[in-house]
Specification:
Layout lengths: L1 E5 L12 E3 L12 E6 L2 E7 L13 H10 L4 E10 L9 E3 L2 E3 L21 H14 L3 E3 L2 E4 L8 H7 L5 E3 L2 H10 L4 E10 L10 H25 L2
Parallel strand pairs: 1-4, 1-5, 5-11, 6-8, 7-9, 9-10
Antiparallel strand pairs: 2-3, 3-4, 5-10, 6-11
Length: 235
């Protein structure tokens, strides 16, 4: 069973009438009811990570989200993540399928009371599926790159962007938590990043939340094309 977690601006019409399940976990309720929907002839489990109430990134109950998906039989997980570009050659409107992530500050774990060490990584097998799907869908994408995870909810300062751009390619506020928790649960995880803006200071125009949301909505069709191709290849 394939699970998909996507952001607040991901709106595919077929999700509106999908069957919904409320799930309670040992970590509380997930961000939203879980949707069971058919895409590309395959039943998938879908969750909006910010929920219908637009939960801010620092308040998302990632542990409940991942636990709920696992309880419904999800065996591999794709994250659709909205990101800002740290590089001028990665413009808004493109897609990045990162090969690694950077989060040198606090990150969530299921192992609060004992030391359990994992070697954090994204699933190379699932990444390969997404890369082939993006190629087949003929969308503009970048294979590889580093996702830098900041804590939010505010955007980054110009100085932070200048520093982070030396280490990463895109910046967001959710993926490292999901990728780490998924690996702790034994779930292969890969990310499909929607580049919705240039990070603060890269361009000489104001960075507006409304413009970021507008670009994210425009990118939905590109993301859906890739997901459908990926699911078709995973039957």
């Amino acid at each position: 069973m394939v699970g998909i977690i996507a952001g607040a601006n991901f709106s595919v019409a077929r999700l509106e009438n999908a069957e919904r399940k409320r799930v309670q976990t040992a970590y509380g309720e997930p961000s939203d009811s879980i949707r069971l929907v058919s895409l590309a002839g395959q039943e998938i489990v879908f969750l909006l990570r910010h929920g219908s109430q637009r939960i801010p990134p620092h308040r998302i109950n990632h542990r409940a989200n991942l636990s709920a998906l696992l309880s419904l039989g999800v065996s591999q997980l794709i994250g659709v993540n909205s990101v800002g570009s740290l590089k001028r050659d990665i413009p808004p409107g493109s897609i990045v399928i990162p090969g690694d992530f950077l989060c040198p500050w606090q990150i969530l774990t299921f192992h609060e009371d004992r030391a359990v060490h994992i070697t954090p990584t994204l699933s190379q097998e699932l990444r390969t599926v997404l890369v082939r799907a993006a190629f087949d869908a003929e969308v503009k994408f970048r294979d590889g790159g580093v996702y830098v995870h900041t804590l939010g909810p505010r955007l980054e300062t110009r100085a932070e962007v200048a520093m982070l751009s030396q280490f990463g390619d895109v910046v967001g506020m959710t993926m490292a938590h999901e990728a780490t928790l998924a690996q702790e649960l034994g779930l292969p995880y890969a990310s499909l990043c929607s580049v919705d803006n240039f990070a603060h200071g890269l361009m000489d125009v104001p960075l507006l939340a409304e413009e970021i949301a507008r670009m994210a909505r425009e990118n939905v069709n590109q993301i859906e094309k890739v997901l459908i191709r990926a699911l078709e290849s995973m039957k």
